[in-house]
Amino acid sequence: MTAAPLSGAVAHAFGDSAALRTAAARLSAMGCTVVRRGGPPPPGAPAGWIGLVRDPGAGRTGEPPIGCAIGWSGPVAADLPGERAVQAACGLAHLHGRARGGPRFLGVDYASVCAGVLAAQAVAAAALFRARGGPALSAAVSAAQAALLAAGPHIAAATAPDDGPGAPADPAGRHCTPPFRTSDGVRLEIETLDAEAWADFWADLGASPAAAAAGWPPFQSRFGTARCPLPAELGAVIAARDGRRVRAAARRSGVGLTPIRTAAEAAAAHRPEPEWRLHPCDGGPAPALPPAPPGRAPLAGLRVVEATTRIQGPLAGLLLAMLGAEVVRIEPPGGDPMRGVPPTAGGTSARFRALNRGKEAVQTDLKTPAGRRTARDLAASAHVFLHNWPPGRAERFGLGPGDLAAPGLVHVHAGGWDGDPPADPGPATDYPVQAHGGVADLLAAPGEEPAPSLLTLTDVLGGLIAAEGALAGLLLRARTGTGAVAATALADAARLLRDTGRGAAPTGGDAPVPADSRAASTGVGPAPTGAVRGASTEAAPGSASPFAGGTPGPAGGDRAGASTREAELRAGRGAASTGAAHGGTPPGAGRGAPEPATDLAALAAAPEFAAAFDTVGGASCPRPPWDFAPAGTAPIGAVPADRPDIRQEVPR
């Protein structure tokens, strides 16, 4: 049974959005009782507010509640009244549609779900800070910040000062993009990280060596480019063969093959557990966690050692670093190979910087006894050990939960399939997990065939869930004095999206942006009334703002009002401050929404986004998605004048 680190705690939630519902579900998974208070969200939190009104681990009474306000635009100085507006303005629609000819809205409330996980993390981190003797904190996060975090590696690459060789050139002639369809109608994804296995698979099916060779560069780089233009011959070869023949070729070559399941099929096959599994670790009593340094971030004074690569694991470590932890990476001799992938910023891959900035690195060879001793010594000095190795590798290195005897260590595995792989699993990477987990089905508009997004949806959300697992483990240690093992997976990210269901697109699925909207986003033709004109795709990087036409607010309203309400929370004023309740626009309604940004460099250079980015090695990287400040001075149980509904008794 999964441990409940917030057992006995009570949270109140105000408002109703996908982000707030996600945050409530995440805190509930930690054992917290969440009371939905109903009514509109409070001022300063247009997407909702959630916070602890009772926390048995606080150690003090009479303090104000810790909580998190959830907004739409956050530090972005533009009117973003809902999910669809955020997807458009922050590059998600562009990246999702990049492989298919133009911006497309995701058919799930992706930015909102990520913002909800981040909000729950803020509450958990603030609870941990208070358990370590720190003061009560309030926090703020927004869907825009969550979206920019998801797009961060792409934005860093677009703004890198050294372009390097760039993305692989498109193969000559006609193209196809995965997934593939067999002659008997099976839609499937394939996956391999091995060029030889790729060549053997296509040779077995009768494809020409030239087509296979031309397809490998765009296939292996699709995680960083969100495009995968393959020679049309490869799609035709699979289309001429039935599923049994293609499966046999995959098995002989060692290529993973994943049929696309519907969301209902995926839901029926998965056990009803939280998105992470947390269990106490019998490593003996541990010393108390270090006291919280005054005036510092919530995880200041804690140490994380990570052995991760690609996106999911490094993003989890980045989030913990953004929360104040010291993060040390274990890398092979010569450094992580991803450091050299172009484009570069300051001599290091811009994408790598986006996910690993602010971390230290120690190089050691885990294939040698000396290297493994170094890794064990590092883990013994840490409060969290995080890795995303395939199952069994940590144990082979002597770095599994049973091998690391450091009392109180929180051992976090950011895995892939979580015990529910397809029949012929390859590496558990983002796109096969989307296919197997029902996400590809959710993204499809009515009448369209399902296809995973080449925006790495489960990698990013999986990284957020892994960081949440680390926070849950630290909370459990603070309460019990023992360590913990937290297991998370990309499959859990797919399940969270599946449980949230269809969302933002106007048709309820993966809808293309209308032609007139695409014209507006490239500066050709009139923009719809009330829309914010997008930047030209041909503009030089940084030469045009995605908001060149201005930032009009909702009809009859003023954007500055909404911006001020969100800013008040960031300045430390409480989420339940006096003022009129924010009625807001329903998520996805698109009122006053910008047209999709199609130039990521221009997006990062736009003055409206100035407060959302830092420059790291010359590349633009999103700032931490949370703002923390001392909680308000009102004690727990005090009733703001404009919220008499809070007087309901807290459940015991």
UniProtKB/TrEMBL annotation:
Where do Basic and acidic residues bias regions lie? Answer: 642-652
Which InterPro entries does the record match to this protein? CoA-transferase_III, CoA-Trfase_fam_III, CoA-Trfase_III_dom3_sf, CoA-Trfase_III_dom_1_sf
Q: Where is this region: Disordered?
A: 161-180, 501-596, 615-652
Do you know which PANTHER family this protein is assigned to? ALPHA-METHYLACYL-COA RACEMASE, SUCCINYL-COA--D-CITRAMALATE COA-TRANSFERASE
One Gene Ontology MF term: transferase activity
Give start-end positions of Low complexity composition bias: 161-171, 539-549
Q: Which SUPFAM superfamilies match?
A: CoA-transferase family III (CaiB/BaiF)
Keywords in alphabetical order? Transferase
Spell out the Gly residues composition-biased ranges.
Answer: 550-559, 581-591
Q: What is this protein called?
A: Crotonobetainyl-CoA:carnitine CoA-transferase CaiB-like acyl-CoA transferase
Listed transmembrane segments: none
